[in-house]
Specification:
With 486 residues, the protein is mainly beta. Helices cover 8% and strands 34% of the residues. The protein contains seven helices and 35 strands. The strands form seven sheets. Strands 1, 2, 17, 18, 19, 22, 24, 25 and 35 form a nine-stranded mixed sheet that branches.
Protein backbone atom coordinates (compact mmCIF):
# COMPACT_ATOMS: atom_id res chain seq x y z
CA UNK A 1 0.00 0.00 0.00
CA UNK A 2 1.43 3.33 -1.03
CA UNK A 3 1.48 6.19 1.42
CA UNK A 4 -0.25 9.45 0.61
CA UNK A 5 2.02 12.01 -0.92
CA UNK A 6 3.00 14.69 1.57
CA UNK A 7 5.62 16.58 -0.38
CA UNK A 8 4.46 19.75 -2.12
CA UNK A 9 5.97 21.83 -4.88
CA UNK A 10 7.25 24.47 -2.46
CA UNK A 11 9.26 21.84 -0.60
CA UNK A 12 10.76 20.62 -3.85
CA UNK A 13 12.03 24.09 -4.68
CA UNK A 14 13.99 24.13 -1.45
CA UNK A 15 16.07 21.14 -2.50
CA UNK A 16 16.33 21.47 -6.28
CA UNK A 17 15.69 23.74 -9.22
CA UNK A 18 13.93 22.61 -12.38
CA UNK A 19 14.81 25.01 -15.18
CA UNK A 20 12.48 25.62 -18.10
CA UNK A 21 13.67 25.21 -21.67
CA UNK A 22 13.78 22.75 -24.52
CA UNK A 23 17.44 21.68 -24.38
CA UNK A 24 20.07 20.85 -21.78
CA UNK A 25 18.59 21.63 -18.38
CA UNK A 26 14.83 21.72 -17.93
CA UNK A 27 12.13 19.97 -19.92
CA UNK A 28 12.50 18.27 -23.29
CA UNK A 29 9.45 19.42 -25.27
CA UNK A 30 10.29 17.63 -28.53
CA UNK A 31 7.22 16.71 -30.52
CA UNK A 32 5.96 13.25 -29.56
CA UNK A 33 6.20 10.75 -32.45
CA UNK A 34 3.17 8.75 -33.44
CA UNK A 35 4.33 5.72 -31.48
CA UNK A 36 4.37 7.58 -28.16
CA UNK A 37 0.59 7.36 -28.02
CA UNK A 38 0.47 3.54 -28.00
CA UNK A 39 3.90 2.23 -27.13
CA UNK A 40 2.90 -1.44 -26.96
CA UNK A 41 1.57 -1.26 -30.52
CA UNK A 42 4.52 0.81 -31.72
CA UNK A 43 7.04 -1.90 -30.85
CA UNK A 44 6.41 -4.22 -33.77
CA UNK A 45 8.52 -7.40 -34.19
CA UNK A 46 10.64 -5.60 -36.79
CA UNK A 47 11.42 -2.68 -34.47
CA UNK A 48 12.15 -5.06 -31.62
CA UNK A 49 14.53 -7.12 -33.77
CA UNK A 50 16.44 -3.98 -34.78
CA UNK A 51 16.93 -2.76 -31.19
CA UNK A 52 20.41 -3.20 -29.70
CA UNK A 53 21.86 -2.78 -26.20
CA UNK A 54 22.68 0.73 -25.02
CA UNK A 55 26.12 -0.53 -23.90
CA UNK A 56 28.66 2.24 -23.15
CA UNK A 57 32.37 1.48 -22.74
CA UNK A 58 35.61 3.43 -22.31
CA UNK A 59 39.00 2.76 -23.93
CA UNK A 60 42.39 3.11 -22.26
CA UNK A 61 42.65 6.76 -23.34
CA UNK A 62 39.32 7.78 -21.84
CA UNK A 63 37.26 7.87 -25.06
CA UNK A 64 33.68 6.64 -25.00
CA UNK A 65 31.98 4.17 -27.34
CA UNK A 66 28.71 2.36 -27.88
CA UNK A 67 29.59 -1.34 -28.05
CA UNK A 68 27.40 -3.12 -30.58
CA UNK A 69 26.27 -6.77 -30.25
CA UNK A 70 28.99 -7.96 -32.65
CA UNK A 71 31.67 -6.35 -30.46
CA UNK A 72 32.39 -3.43 -32.80
CA UNK A 73 32.78 0.01 -31.25
CA UNK A 74 30.85 3.06 -32.39
CA UNK A 75 32.41 6.37 -31.23
CA UNK A 76 30.24 8.17 -28.68
CA UNK A 77 30.86 11.90 -28.44
CA UNK A 78 33.83 11.98 -30.86
CA UNK A 79 33.84 11.70 -34.63
CA UNK A 80 36.77 9.63 -35.90
CA UNK A 81 35.38 6.11 -36.44
CA UNK A 82 38.88 4.63 -36.54
CA UNK A 83 40.18 6.44 -33.49
CA UNK A 84 39.44 3.58 -31.13
CA UNK A 85 41.74 1.27 -33.12
CA UNK A 86 44.74 3.60 -33.00
CA UNK A 87 47.18 2.64 -30.22
CA UNK A 88 48.41 5.32 -27.85
CA UNK A 89 52.01 6.21 -28.75
CA UNK A 90 54.41 5.24 -25.98
CA UNK A 91 56.44 8.03 -24.44
CA UNK A 92 59.96 7.95 -25.83
CA UNK A 93 62.55 7.60 -23.01
CA UNK A 94 65.40 10.07 -22.76
CA UNK A 95 68.66 8.21 -23.37
CA UNK A 96 71.37 8.49 -20.74
CA UNK A 97 74.12 8.02 -23.33
CA UNK A 98 74.56 8.93 -26.99
CA UNK A 99 73.41 6.35 -29.53
CA UNK A 100 76.04 3.72 -29.93
CA UNK A 101 77.52 4.59 -26.58
CA UNK A 102 76.69 1.17 -25.19
CA UNK A 103 74.10 2.24 -22.64
CA UNK A 104 70.52 3.34 -22.05
CA UNK A 105 68.64 5.29 -19.46
CA UNK A 106 66.43 2.42 -18.23
CA UNK A 107 68.20 -0.65 -16.94
CA UNK A 108 65.49 -1.84 -14.51
CA UNK A 109 62.70 -4.19 -15.48
CA UNK A 110 59.00 -3.34 -15.13
CA UNK A 111 57.31 -3.29 -11.74
CA UNK A 112 54.60 -5.94 -11.35
CA UNK A 113 51.87 -5.81 -8.68
CA UNK A 114 48.14 -6.41 -8.14
CA UNK A 115 48.20 -10.11 -8.95
CA UNK A 116 44.74 -11.60 -9.52
CA UNK A 117 44.26 -14.37 -8.51
CA UNK A 118 46.47 -13.62 -5.51
CA UNK A 119 48.45 -16.25 -3.64
CA UNK A 120 46.17 -18.74 -1.88
CA UNK A 121 43.05 -17.85 -3.89
CA UNK A 122 40.51 -20.44 -5.03
CA UNK A 123 39.08 -20.07 -8.53
CA UNK A 124 36.69 -22.04 -10.72
CA UNK A 125 37.00 -23.41 -14.25
CA UNK A 126 37.37 -19.90 -15.70
CA UNK A 127 39.14 -16.78 -14.48
CA UNK A 128 40.33 -13.40 -15.74
CA UNK A 129 44.00 -13.18 -14.75
CA UNK A 130 45.21 -9.63 -14.10
CA UNK A 131 48.35 -7.79 -13.02
CA UNK A 132 49.40 -4.15 -12.87
CA UNK A 133 52.62 -3.56 -14.82
CA UNK A 134 54.45 -0.21 -14.98
CA UNK A 135 57.78 1.05 -16.29
CA UNK A 136 59.19 4.55 -16.98
CA UNK A 137 60.00 3.46 -20.54
CA UNK A 138 56.61 1.94 -21.15
CA UNK A 139 55.73 -1.74 -21.30
CA UNK A 140 56.38 -3.65 -24.53
CA UNK A 141 54.73 -6.95 -23.66
CA UNK A 142 53.26 -8.96 -20.78
CA UNK A 143 52.90 -12.74 -20.72
CA UNK A 144 51.14 -14.87 -18.12
CA UNK A 145 52.53 -18.37 -17.63
CA UNK A 146 50.22 -20.91 -15.96
CA UNK A 147 51.59 -24.17 -14.55
CA UNK A 148 49.27 -27.16 -14.03
CA UNK A 149 49.44 -29.61 -11.08
CA UNK A 150 51.44 -31.98 -13.32
CA UNK A 151 54.02 -29.29 -14.05
CA UNK A 152 52.94 -28.50 -17.62
CA UNK A 153 53.37 -24.80 -18.40
CA UNK A 154 51.47 -22.68 -20.92
CA UNK A 155 52.02 -19.01 -21.71
CA UNK A 156 49.39 -16.48 -22.80
CA UNK A 157 49.82 -12.93 -24.08
CA UNK A 158 47.98 -10.40 -21.90
CA UNK A 159 46.16 -7.30 -23.20
CA UNK A 160 46.65 -3.83 -21.72
CA UNK A 161 43.65 -2.12 -20.15
CA UNK A 162 43.09 1.02 -18.11
CA UNK A 163 45.38 2.01 -15.24
CA UNK A 164 48.25 -0.21 -16.50
CA UNK A 165 46.23 -3.37 -15.81
CA UNK A 166 47.08 -6.28 -18.14
CA UNK A 167 44.64 -9.18 -18.36
CA UNK A 168 43.58 -12.34 -20.17
CA UNK A 169 40.62 -14.64 -19.52
CA UNK A 170 41.51 -18.34 -19.33
CA UNK A 171 39.14 -21.29 -19.33
CA UNK A 172 39.23 -25.05 -18.85
CA UNK A 173 40.94 -25.31 -15.45
CA UNK A 174 40.72 -28.63 -13.61
CA UNK A 175 40.76 -29.25 -9.87
CA UNK A 176 44.10 -29.10 -8.09
CA UNK A 177 47.00 -26.86 -7.07
CA UNK A 178 48.19 -24.52 -9.82
CA UNK A 179 50.78 -21.76 -10.17
CA UNK A 180 51.16 -18.69 -12.37
CA UNK A 181 53.74 -15.96 -12.99
CA UNK A 182 54.12 -12.77 -14.98
CA UNK A 183 56.87 -12.07 -17.53
CA UNK A 184 56.99 -8.36 -18.46
CA UNK A 185 59.32 -6.66 -20.95
CA UNK A 186 59.86 -2.88 -20.87
CA UNK A 187 59.73 -0.51 -23.83
CA UNK A 188 63.24 0.88 -23.57
CA UNK A 189 65.56 1.05 -26.56
CA UNK A 190 67.72 -2.03 -26.85
CA UNK A 191 68.55 -3.86 -24.76
CA UNK A 192 65.09 -4.41 -23.31
CA UNK A 193 64.84 -5.36 -19.65
CA UNK A 194 62.56 -8.17 -18.48
CA UNK A 195 60.96 -8.85 -15.10
CA UNK A 196 59.80 -12.34 -14.15
CA UNK A 197 57.65 -12.49 -11.04
CA UNK A 198 57.84 -15.29 -8.47
CA UNK A 199 55.34 -18.13 -8.95
CA UNK A 200 51.95 -17.51 -7.31
CA UNK A 201 50.11 -20.58 -6.05
CA UNK A 202 46.32 -20.91 -6.30
CA UNK A 203 43.70 -23.64 -6.03
CA UNK A 204 41.16 -24.67 -8.65
CA UNK A 205 37.87 -26.07 -7.37
CA UNK A 206 35.39 -26.41 -10.22
CA UNK A 207 32.70 -27.71 -7.90
CA UNK A 208 32.59 -24.54 -5.78
CA UNK A 209 34.20 -21.91 -7.97
CA UNK A 210 31.04 -20.82 -9.76
CA UNK A 211 31.02 -19.96 -13.44
CA UNK A 212 33.78 -17.43 -13.18
CA UNK A 213 35.99 -18.23 -10.25
CA UNK A 214 36.74 -16.67 -6.91
CA UNK A 215 35.08 -19.37 -4.79
CA UNK A 216 31.38 -19.49 -4.06
CA UNK A 217 31.22 -15.70 -3.71
CA UNK A 218 32.16 -14.87 -7.33
CA UNK A 219 29.74 -15.32 -10.22
CA UNK A 220 30.58 -13.96 -13.67
CA UNK A 221 27.31 -14.37 -15.60
CA UNK A 222 24.67 -16.83 -14.38
CA UNK A 223 20.86 -16.96 -14.60
CA UNK A 224 19.23 -15.32 -11.60
CA UNK A 225 17.81 -18.12 -9.40
CA UNK A 226 14.34 -16.58 -9.41
CA UNK A 227 14.26 -15.56 -5.76
CA UNK A 228 13.10 -12.38 -4.06
CA UNK A 229 11.21 -9.30 -5.12
CA UNK A 230 13.91 -8.38 -7.64
CA UNK A 231 12.68 -11.21 -9.89
CA UNK A 232 9.44 -9.35 -10.58
CA UNK A 233 10.55 -5.75 -9.92
CA UNK A 234 13.43 -5.86 -12.41
CA UNK A 235 12.53 -5.63 -16.06
CA UNK A 236 13.60 -4.85 -19.60
CA UNK A 237 13.38 -1.33 -21.04
CA UNK A 238 12.87 -0.69 -24.74
CA UNK A 239 13.26 2.86 -26.09
CA UNK A 240 14.48 4.92 -29.03
CA UNK A 241 17.23 7.54 -29.28
CA UNK A 242 18.35 9.68 -32.25
CA UNK A 243 20.43 8.21 -35.07
CA UNK A 244 21.30 11.65 -36.46
CA UNK A 245 21.67 15.23 -35.27
CA UNK A 246 18.61 16.39 -37.20
CA UNK A 247 16.49 13.99 -35.10
CA UNK A 248 14.88 12.65 -38.27
CA UNK A 249 16.06 9.06 -37.71
CA UNK A 250 15.77 7.13 -34.45
CA UNK A 251 17.19 3.77 -33.37
CA UNK A 252 15.88 1.23 -30.88
CA UNK A 253 17.81 0.27 -27.75
CA UNK A 254 17.53 -2.12 -24.81
CA UNK A 255 18.36 -1.54 -21.12
CA UNK A 256 17.21 -2.81 -17.72
CA UNK A 257 15.48 -1.09 -14.82
CA UNK A 258 13.92 -1.80 -11.43
CA UNK A 259 10.73 -0.60 -9.77
CA UNK A 260 11.82 1.44 -6.73
CA UNK A 261 9.81 2.01 -3.55
CA UNK A 262 8.67 5.63 -3.83
CA UNK A 263 6.07 6.26 -1.07
CA UNK A 264 3.66 8.29 -3.22
CA UNK A 265 0.17 7.42 -4.40
CA UNK A 266 -0.14 8.50 -8.03
CA UNK A 267 2.87 6.88 -9.71
CA UNK A 268 5.55 4.22 -9.77
CA UNK A 269 9.25 5.00 -10.28
CA UNK A 270 11.77 2.90 -12.22
CA UNK A 271 15.46 3.27 -11.36
CA UNK A 272 17.85 2.85 -14.31
CA UNK A 273 20.97 4.44 -15.85
CA UNK A 274 20.96 7.97 -17.31
CA UNK A 275 22.27 6.68 -20.65
CA UNK A 276 19.02 4.70 -20.91
CA UNK A 277 16.94 7.87 -20.44
CA UNK A 278 18.79 10.78 -22.09
CA UNK A 279 21.07 10.92 -25.15
CA UNK A 280 24.00 13.04 -23.98
CA UNK A 281 25.34 13.48 -27.52
CA UNK A 282 22.20 14.71 -29.29
CA UNK A 283 20.82 16.24 -26.06
CA UNK A 284 17.34 14.74 -26.08
CA UNK A 285 15.29 12.36 -23.95
CA UNK A 286 14.39 8.86 -25.15
CA UNK A 287 11.05 8.28 -26.87
CA UNK A 288 8.70 5.29 -27.18
CA UNK A 289 9.77 3.86 -23.82
CA UNK A 290 8.28 0.53 -22.70
CA UNK A 291 9.01 -1.41 -19.49
CA UNK A 292 8.47 -5.19 -19.21
CA UNK A 293 8.84 -6.42 -15.60
CA UNK A 294 9.65 -10.10 -14.96
CA UNK A 295 10.21 -10.61 -18.68
CA UNK A 296 12.17 -13.73 -17.67
CA UNK A 297 8.80 -15.43 -17.17
CA UNK A 298 7.51 -14.93 -20.72
CA UNK A 299 5.81 -17.85 -22.45
CA UNK A 300 7.30 -16.68 -25.72
CA UNK A 301 10.61 -17.95 -27.10
CA UNK A 302 12.25 -14.66 -26.15
CA UNK A 303 11.53 -10.97 -26.04
CA UNK A 304 8.85 -10.47 -28.68
CA UNK A 305 7.22 -7.37 -27.20
CA UNK A 306 3.89 -9.14 -27.18
CA UNK A 307 2.74 -7.96 -23.78
CA UNK A 308 0.03 -10.61 -23.54
CA UNK A 309 2.56 -13.45 -23.13
CA UNK A 310 4.53 -11.75 -20.35
CA UNK A 311 3.59 -12.47 -16.71
CA UNK A 312 2.66 -8.91 -15.81
CA UNK A 313 2.30 -7.23 -19.19
CA UNK A 314 3.96 -3.93 -20.16
CA UNK A 315 3.98 -0.35 -18.88
CA UNK A 316 4.54 2.97 -20.65
CA UNK A 317 6.50 5.55 -18.59
CA UNK A 318 5.27 9.13 -18.78
CA UNK A 319 8.62 10.90 -18.43
CA UNK A 320 12.23 10.53 -17.34
CA UNK A 321 14.35 12.47 -14.83
CA UNK A 322 18.14 12.94 -14.92
CA UNK A 323 20.73 15.16 -13.27
CA UNK A 324 21.53 18.23 -15.36
CA UNK A 325 25.22 17.29 -15.25
CA UNK A 326 24.47 14.22 -17.36
CA UNK A 327 22.88 16.42 -20.04
CA UNK A 328 25.49 19.19 -20.21
CA UNK A 329 28.48 16.84 -20.50
CA UNK A 330 29.25 13.84 -22.69
CA UNK A 331 30.24 10.32 -21.67
CA UNK A 332 32.64 9.53 -20.05
CA UNK A 333 32.90 13.04 -18.54
CA UNK A 334 29.44 12.55 -16.99
CA UNK A 335 30.02 9.01 -15.69
CA UNK A 336 29.40 9.88 -12.05
CA UNK A 337 25.80 10.99 -12.84
CA UNK A 338 24.74 7.81 -14.65
CA UNK A 339 21.60 7.25 -12.54
CA UNK A 340 18.09 8.24 -13.59
CA UNK A 341 14.41 7.46 -13.16
CA UNK A 342 11.36 6.80 -15.31
CA UNK A 343 7.96 7.74 -13.89
CA UNK A 344 4.87 5.61 -14.64
CA UNK A 345 1.33 6.86 -14.01
CA UNK A 346 -1.02 4.71 -11.94
CA UNK A 347 -3.63 4.75 -14.71
CA UNK A 348 -3.52 4.50 -18.49
CA UNK A 349 0.02 3.07 -18.64
CA UNK A 350 -0.57 -0.69 -18.50
CA UNK A 351 -1.02 -3.22 -21.29
CA UNK A 352 -2.25 -6.46 -19.70
CA UNK A 353 -0.23 -9.68 -19.65
CA UNK A 354 -0.80 -13.31 -18.69
CA UNK A 355 -1.94 -12.60 -15.15
CA UNK A 356 -4.59 -10.32 -13.69
CA UNK A 357 -1.98 -7.82 -12.60
CA UNK A 358 -2.92 -4.49 -11.07
CA UNK A 359 -2.64 -1.46 -13.34
CA UNK A 360 -0.39 0.04 -10.66
CA UNK A 361 3.13 -1.04 -11.58
CA UNK A 362 4.48 -0.99 -8.02
CA UNK A 363 1.58 -3.09 -6.78
CA UNK A 364 1.84 -5.61 -9.61
CA UNK A 365 5.61 -6.05 -9.72
CA UNK A 366 6.64 -5.15 -6.19
CA UNK A 367 9.45 -2.72 -5.51
CA UNK A 368 12.90 -2.47 -3.94
CA UNK A 369 14.13 0.29 -1.69
CA UNK A 370 17.09 2.43 -2.73
CA UNK A 371 19.87 2.95 -0.21
CA UNK A 372 21.48 6.37 -0.42
CA UNK A 373 23.91 5.41 2.36
CA UNK A 374 27.45 4.29 1.55
CA UNK A 375 27.74 0.53 0.90
CA UNK A 376 30.64 -1.52 2.27
CA UNK A 377 33.62 -2.38 0.10
CA UNK A 378 34.66 -6.03 0.09
CA UNK A 379 31.11 -7.25 0.75
CA UNK A 380 29.71 -9.54 -1.95
CA UNK A 381 27.32 -7.59 -4.16
CA UNK A 382 24.88 -8.81 -6.85
CA UNK A 383 24.63 -6.95 -10.18
CA UNK A 384 21.47 -7.99 -12.04
CA UNK A 385 20.12 -7.27 -15.50
CA UNK A 386 18.61 -8.51 -18.73
CA UNK A 387 21.68 -9.35 -20.81
CA UNK A 388 21.03 -9.06 -24.54
CA UNK A 389 22.92 -12.27 -25.35
CA UNK A 390 20.92 -14.32 -22.82
CA UNK A 391 17.42 -13.24 -23.88
CA UNK A 392 14.98 -13.65 -22.20
CA UNK A 393 16.77 -14.66 -18.99
CA UNK A 394 17.41 -12.37 -16.03
CA UNK A 395 21.17 -12.70 -15.37
CA UNK A 396 23.53 -11.69 -12.57
CA UNK A 397 27.15 -11.48 -11.48
CA UNK A 398 28.42 -11.34 -7.90
CA UNK A 399 31.67 -10.59 -6.07
CA UNK A 400 33.19 -8.34 -3.44
CA UNK A 401 32.50 -4.64 -4.00
CA UNK A 402 35.56 -2.61 -5.02
CA UNK A 403 36.35 0.94 -6.12
CA UNK A 404 37.18 1.74 -9.75
CA UNK A 405 40.48 3.65 -9.77
CA UNK A 406 40.05 6.15 -12.63
CA UNK A 407 36.50 7.50 -12.18
CA UNK A 408 35.77 6.54 -8.57
CA UNK A 409 32.70 4.43 -9.37
CA UNK A 410 31.90 1.13 -7.69
CA UNK A 411 33.49 -1.81 -9.49
CA UNK A 412 32.91 -5.56 -9.94
CA UNK A 413 36.06 -6.63 -11.74
CA UNK A 414 34.98 -10.06 -13.01
CA UNK A 415 31.40 -9.23 -13.97
CA UNK A 416 30.52 -10.61 -17.40
CA UNK A 417 26.98 -9.30 -17.93
CA UNK A 418 26.48 -8.47 -21.60
CA UNK A 419 24.87 -5.43 -23.19
CA UNK A 420 21.25 -4.87 -22.22
CA UNK A 421 22.01 -5.15 -18.52
CA UNK A 422 22.67 -1.39 -18.24
CA UNK A 423 20.50 0.17 -15.56
CA UNK A 424 19.90 -3.11 -13.72
CA UNK A 425 20.21 -3.05 -9.91
CA UNK A 426 23.15 -3.75 -7.60
CA UNK A 427 22.07 -5.35 -4.34
CA UNK A 428 24.06 -5.45 -1.11
CA UNK A 429 24.15 -7.74 0.77
CA UNK A 430 24.00 -10.25 -2.06
CA UNK A 431 22.09 -12.77 0.07
CA UNK A 432 19.09 -10.41 0.28
CA UNK A 433 17.30 -10.41 -3.08
CA UNK A 434 14.75 -7.94 -1.72
CA UNK A 435 17.22 -5.04 -1.74
CA UNK A 436 18.24 -2.44 -1.03
CA UNK A 437 19.65 -1.17 -4.33
CA UNK A 438 23.06 0.50 -3.89
CA UNK A 439 23.95 1.21 -7.55
CA UNK A 440 23.07 0.28 -11.15
CA UNK A 441 24.94 -1.30 -14.07
CA UNK A 442 26.63 1.59 -15.83
CA UNK A 443 29.69 1.00 -18.04
CA UNK A 444 32.79 -1.09 -18.70
CA UNK A 445 36.14 -0.97 -20.49
CA UNK A 446 36.74 -1.90 -24.12
CA UNK A 447 39.45 -4.47 -23.44
CA UNK A 448 38.85 -6.06 -20.06
CA UNK A 449 35.99 -7.58 -18.08
CA UNK A 450 34.18 -5.82 -15.26
CA UNK A 451 31.18 -3.60 -14.59
CA UNK A 452 31.10 -0.14 -13.02
CA UNK A 453 28.20 1.39 -11.11
CA UNK A 454 27.71 5.01 -9.99
CA UNK A 455 27.68 6.06 -6.36
CA UNK A 456 24.20 6.80 -5.05
CA UNK A 457 25.54 7.87 -1.66
CA UNK A 458 26.89 11.40 -1.28
CA UNK A 459 25.66 12.41 -4.74
CA UNK A 460 22.56 14.00 -6.27
CA UNK A 461 20.85 10.60 -6.72
CA UNK A 462 18.50 11.19 -3.78
CA UNK A 463 17.66 14.70 -4.95
CA UNK A 464 16.88 13.50 -8.49
CA UNK A 465 14.71 10.74 -6.99
CA UNK A 466 12.76 13.39 -5.06
CA UNK A 467 12.00 15.18 -8.31
CA UNK A 468 10.80 11.90 -9.85
CA UNK A 469 8.32 11.49 -6.98
CA UNK A 470 6.98 15.06 -7.07
CA UNK A 471 7.18 16.40 -10.64
CA UNK A 472 3.72 16.95 -12.16
CA UNK A 473 2.83 14.74 -15.10
CA UNK A 474 3.30 16.64 -18.39
CA UNK A 475 0.39 17.32 -20.73
CA UNK A 476 2.35 18.86 -23.62
CA UNK A 477 4.53 16.06 -24.99
CA UNK A 478 7.39 16.67 -22.58
CA UNK A 479 9.43 13.48 -22.29
CA UNK A 480 11.70 14.37 -19.41
CA UNK A 481 13.08 16.81 -16.86
CA UNK A 482 16.55 17.62 -15.60
CA UNK A 483 17.28 18.42 -11.97
CA UNK A 484 19.87 20.93 -10.77
CA UNK A 485 20.61 19.70 -7.28
CA UNK A 486 22.63 21.33 -4.49
Amino acid sequence: MKHARVLVAAAVLLSMMVAAGPAGAGADRATAPRGDGDVAAYWTPARMAAAIPRDLVVDQRGLGYLRRPDGSLQPHGHRNPQLWATPTPAARPTPAAKPGGGGGGDTTGPTVSGFDPPAGATIGASWTFQATVTDPSGVRSVTFTVVSPSGQAQSFAAAQGANNVWSVTLNGFTDGQWRWRVVAKDGARKPNTTTTSPDISFTVSTGTGGSGGGGTSTIVNDPWPGTGTVQTAAGRLYFEMPANSALTRWSGYVCSGTVATDGVNDRSVILTASHCVYDDVEKVFARNVMFIPDQDGTTGSGTDLTCSNDPLGCWKPSFGVVDVNWTTRTFPDNIRWDYAYYVVADSGAHTAGLGAASDLLESAAGSLGISFAAPTTGVVTDAIGYSYSDDPNLMYCAEGLAREATYGDWWLGHCGLSGGASGGPWLQPASDSNGPIISVNSWGYTNQPGMAGPQLSGTSASCVFSLATTQLFPSDGTRGYTATCP
